[in-house]
Every structure is written in C-alpha cells, then in structure tokens.
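Its record is set out here:
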Amino acid sequence: MEYPSKLIEKAVNEISKLPGIGKKTAMRLALHLLKQPAEETHLLSESLQKLRDDTRYCRTCHIISDTEDCTCKTISKDQSVICVVEDTPDVMAIQNTGQYNGLFHVLGGIISPMDGIGPEDVKIDSLIQRVAESDGEIKEIILALSTTMEGDTTAFYIIKKLEPYDIKITTIARGIPIGGELEYTDELTLGRSILTRTVYEQTP
C-alpha cells in the first residue's frame, strides 16, 4: 500500500498493531482522525497516554484500578468468597450478570508452558496468601477460568496449592448455553454437560 505521506504511513503502522485491526481499517481510522477537530484528536492521544502511564493494579486483587487499593475490601461485598479469573474483562463480565457479590482475584494470565508462562508468572502465590491470612474468613474459592487445557492446568495447580486449607473449591458450570441446540454443540461441551448434570428444577 502506498501512502500520501510518511505521517499517515507511521500512524497506520501503529494503529494496525492493535488486535483485530488490519492496514485498511487502520487507514480509515487515521483519515477519520485527521477530519476531526484537533482538540478531539489531542484528547484521544492524552487519554491513551494517561491510560498507559497512570493505570494501577490493586495490590490485593490485582484488578485494573485508579489506585493500588481498589474497593475489593468494602463491606458491600461478600468477604467469604473469592472468584478467580484470568483478567479484568472477566471481572466485568461476571459483575454485569448481577449474580455475584463476592471478591475477585485476577491472575493476570494462565499457566501455559508452550508460551513460557509458569506458575510464578501469574498471581497465584498472592491468592494463596490471601487465603492463609484470612483466618478462615474466606470459605470458598470459585475458579472461573477458560475451559482450555491451559485453564484446566491453572485450575489444577491452584487446587493443589490450596490443599492445606479447609476451604471449598468450586468451578463455574460448563455446558450447553441457553438457547443452544444439541446438534450444533461440540462433543467436549456436550460430554461435560452430561457429567455435570444437575437436578431438574421446574419453573412456572
């Protein structure tokens, strides 16, 4: 692709580094920014710079926050249960359901030997420390990790690390999504749905 100026070319190259954005989309975005008032473009640039420079992670739960102490310890939350997730978007997804009011613990990744990511590269030790220092206040750990080999490996490692503690460990249900049809469901998901079947509850 030929560019009318080196500035456009540089902008396109940088924008196209974002996930899911190719050169053509990056070109459209660059030209769109050029058409906007200078103030708007400067605000975008400033907000991105602040995002990178000023974002913090809570020292306790490791969620993205404006400070190193987020609201994870407020009394409005159930202090007896911790939901373990891979990253902050998972926290937002669970919170948006309105069905969970406990604490979170963000691992910041999952164990993946193929990618050179070991247990020491994710926030597992701090999770164990939270349980150890809770003096029995934490009663349950919910493992809300992806249903991949890496997710299962991470869950298994966490379970082994929690063995010395008298604590309930659960995982989110895995099965057929609401509105899903069996014939289009993959065999692994269908198999897990059979193995983790629950008592039928009739609704009016």
In short: The chain has two domains: 6-54, 64-171.
